[in-house]
Design a protein that fits this description.
Radius of gyration of chain B: 19 Å
Largest sheet of chain A: 7 strands, mixed
Structural class of chain A: alpha/beta
Number of strands of chain A: 14
Number of helices of chain A: 12
CATH architecture of one domain in chain B: 3-Layer(aba) Sandwich
Strand content of chain B: 5-15%
Strand order of the largest sheet of chain B: 2-1-3-4-8-7
CATH topology of one domain in chain B: Rossmann fold
Oligomer: heterodimer
CATH class of one domain in chain B: Alpha Beta
Helix content of chain B: 40-55%
Bound molecules: thiamine diphosphate
Helix content of chain A: 25-40%
Structural class of chain B: alpha/beta
CATH superfamily of the largest domain in chain A: Thiamin diphosphate (ThDP)-binding fold, Pyr/PP domains
Shape of chain A: globular
Distance between the termini of chain A: 30 Å
CATH class of the largest domain in chain A: Alpha Beta
Number of helices of chain B: 10
Chain lengths: 344, 324
């Protein structure tokens, strides 16, 4: 649980991350007729990864729109509707498909506000599934959040659990800026994929928000800081629990947003522990893990008792075969070993 | 078309079907009781082509050494019909070192340079690549052709249109194939596509466009023959839309709750239908049909055995092959 969001006051129920996302969208749709959803298989199917579960039944084909396989077309259309003041929630089924629509995302969605000198707002949400671990291979397993966060003009949020998924979605829809909302397939709580129990949790039924740009201390600790996000938060919490039994106290910082990035949360934790491990399921070089290391290096490297450690995908495409894929993913075993190395 | 041609096409369709039926069984066998897409000897997404064999077999019957095929996320039928080695392909699907791609690619990323076969999990992106292969063939003065395959859902993707125009304006030896199986995952064709025949889109690029109805392998054979001949003769690309059938879910595990035509699916299966018609015309006997199936099963058994007995890669092998 985190300290920064609106406190839940109604009864809570256990829901999956996927259901939590869909609930947030549904609540906003009830509240605001300008909110609508479009994407591939978001209608009767409910989204391949459950992000629009039950929305079609409630709102119908007029507000939950199945699109052709034309990502440039419908993401561009989302931008157009947004500049007219509507609040579209658009799904790109897998983030890996960014290649066929990146111009709309980067050159239009993310730049129009700046290019127009602030005259034109683009209040849209672009959501996409990320991540691997189930042998979907090189074109369906990437995270890529670092790629988008590198490009100015869009907020990038990456929830790790049902509560944040719901609260961040509400914030994203209400935000006047384009928000890229990246959810990890392995953290959706899907019945057909191996899942961590952390993907199903108590979530209030009513609408609430989690602020964009605030990291959460997912677990407090004193020996080592793990800065991470998305599914790797779940892995890191598992490792922290296990290592607690060995007398190692791990603090886990869940970034939740890459843009804006909560630099202070990183600095505060590292000031306390003096040891920093960044765990990132995205590619290692030129990305998030380097950015987090730079925050400390630029501010005060003397905070560190040991050099920064980075555990990320070692700059290879995601391979298919399980031994290969698990060879490059940041697994619990590798996280645990990296923590111990920092303390050695 | 001779009686032998007919029997060969039937045999190839059965070979593909027996292969995929077995892959389907193996895929599900060790994913119970809690069905987990990432578990088992064959993990990951699995898109089977059952029902679409007439498209692959009718087209590939015209291909020869040096001809290229770019297939889709649903690649098995075209791979087998185009001569990709069943053992190496199966080992790839099992993620083994003896696989086509040493376990790096998987079922959606089968690469066989010897047969100029490839596929991609990104919709319509094989179309431009086929144009490039055709450029190479043309510049080298061969009479080879490149076949590009997509589903009907992919005809609404930009790359599809860019490739058609490129091939037309550069007069490239490409045969563009669309497999219209009525569905793009859960979206029926009519809800995503404004026209009723994608063959009509060919006119926009000034190339011939033909739509083959009824999932009929002989009709595909005829239409594909004309398109391949045209390309070989240097007369440029053609577009062929084949109305076919997705007998199964989009991927294994798809409950198909959205699917309105499910009841009639089995009766539209092209293989029993073709068998019946060949028996009626005297081109196939019961005994032959049994033999064809038994031979296919034996080949499939051997391929699965080969895959299972092959070693899995080592984790550190993941670091190889990023660059040449
Ligand atoms: C660019 C892109 N967008 C979306 C997808 C997800 N996707 C995979 S298959 C598919 C449906 C394809 O339909 P169709 O082209 O008709 O082929 P079929 O699956 O029916 O064989 C979709 C949307 C993708 N792989 N690539």
């Amino acid at each position: 649980m985190t300290a920064t969001e609106t406190p839940p006051d109604a009864g809570t129920r256990r829901v999956t991350t996927a259901k939590a996302m869909a609930e947030a969208i549904g609540l906003e749709m009830r509240d605001n007729p300008e909110v609508f959803v479009m994407g591939e298989d978001v209608g009767a199917y409910g989204g391949i990864f459950g992000s629009t579960t039950d929305l079609f039944a409630e709102f119908g084909a007029d507000r939950v729109i199945d699109t052709p396989i034309s990502e440039t077309g419908f993401i561009g259309a989302g931008i157009g509707a947004a500049v007219e003041g509507m609040r579209p929630v658009v799904e790109l089924m897998f983030v890996d498909f960014y290649g066929v629509c990146m111009d709309q995302i980067s050159n239009h969605m993310a730049k129009i506000h700046y290019e127009s000198g602030g005259a034109v707002k683009v209040p849209m949400v672009l959501m996409a599934a990320t991540g691997g671990g189930y042998s979907d291979a090189a074109q369906h397993s990437q995270c890529l959040w670092g790629t988008f966060a590198h490009l100015p003009g869009m907020k990038v949020v990456v929830p790790s659990n049902p509560y944040d998924a719901k609260g961040l979605m509400a914030s994203a829809i209400r935000d006047d800026n384009p928000v890229l909302y990246l959810f990890h397939k392995g953290a959706q709580g899907l019945v057909w994929m191996e899942k961590n129990p952390r993907s199903i949790a108590d979530v209030p039924e009513e609408a609430f928000t989690v602020p964009i740009g605030k990291a959460a201390t997912a677990r407090e600790g004193t020996d080592v800081t793990i800065v991470t996000l998305s599914l790797s938060v779940q892995h890191s919490l598992d490792v922290a629990e296990e290592l607690a039994g060995e007398g190692i106290s791990v603090e886990v910082i869940d970034l939740r947003s890459l843009v804006p990035l909560d630099r202070q949360a990183v600095l505060d934790s590292v000031a306390k522990t003096g040891r920093l491990l960044v765990v990132d399921e995205d590619y290692k070089s030129f990305g998030l893990s380097g950015e987090i290391a730079a925050i400390v290096a630029e501010t005060d490297p003397t905070m560190l008792a040991k050099p920064v450690s980075r555990l990320a995908v070692p700059d290879v495409p995601i391979p298919y075969s399980r031994p290969l894929e698990y060879g490059i993913l940041p697994t619990r075993e590798k996280i645990s070993a990296a923590v111990k190395d920092l303390l050695a | 078309m001779t009686s032998l041609d007919r029997l060969a096409m039937y045999t190839e369709m059965v070979r593909i079907r027996q292969y995929e039926t077995r892959i389907m069984q193996e895929y599900h066998a060790d994913k119970t009781p809690a069905w987990d897409i990432g578990a088992g000897l064959i993990p990951g997404e699995m898109h089977l082509s059952a029902g679409q064999e007439p498209a692959a077999v009718g087209v590939c019957a015209h291909l020869k050494k040096g001809d290229a095929v770019t297939a889709t996320h649903r690649p098995h039928h075209f791979a087998l019909a185009h001569g990709v080695d069943m053992n190496a392909m199966t080992a790839e699907i099992y993620g083994r070192t003896t696989g086509l791609c040493k376990g790096k690619g998987g079922h959606m990323h089968l690469f066989d340079p010897e047969n100029h076969f490839s596929c991609s999990g990104i919709i319509a992106q094989g179309y431009p690549v086929a144009c490039g292969q055709a450029m190479a063939m043309k510049r080298r003065g061969t009479d080879n052709v490149a076949v590009a395959v997509t589903g009907e859902g992919a005809a609404n993707q930009g790359a599809f249109h860019e490739a058609l125009n490129l091939a037309a304006v550069w007069n490239l030896p490409v045969v563009f194939v669309i497999e219209d199986n009525d569905w793009a995952i859960s979206v029926p064709r009519g809800e995503s596509t404004a026209n009723t025949s994608n063959a009509d889109r060919a006119a926009g690029y000034g190339i011939p466009g033909v739509r083959v109805e009824n999932n009929d392998v002989e009709a595909v054979f005829e239409a594909a023959g004309a398109a391949v001949d045209r390309a070989r003769a240097g007369e440029g690309p053609s577009l062929l839309e084949i109305h076919t059938l997705r007998l199964l879910g989009h991927f294994e595990g798809d409950a198909q709750a959205y699917r309105s035509d499910l009841e009639t699916v089995d009766e539209r299966d092209p293989i029993p239908r073709y068998a019946a018609s060949l028996m009626e015309s005297g081109d196939l006997t019961e005994a032959q049909a049994e033999e064809v199936k038994a031979a296919a099963d034996a080949e499939v058994d051997a391929a699965i055995q080969f895959a299972i007995e092959s070693p899995l890669p080592q984790p550190e092998d993941a670091l190889d092959d990023v660059f040449a």
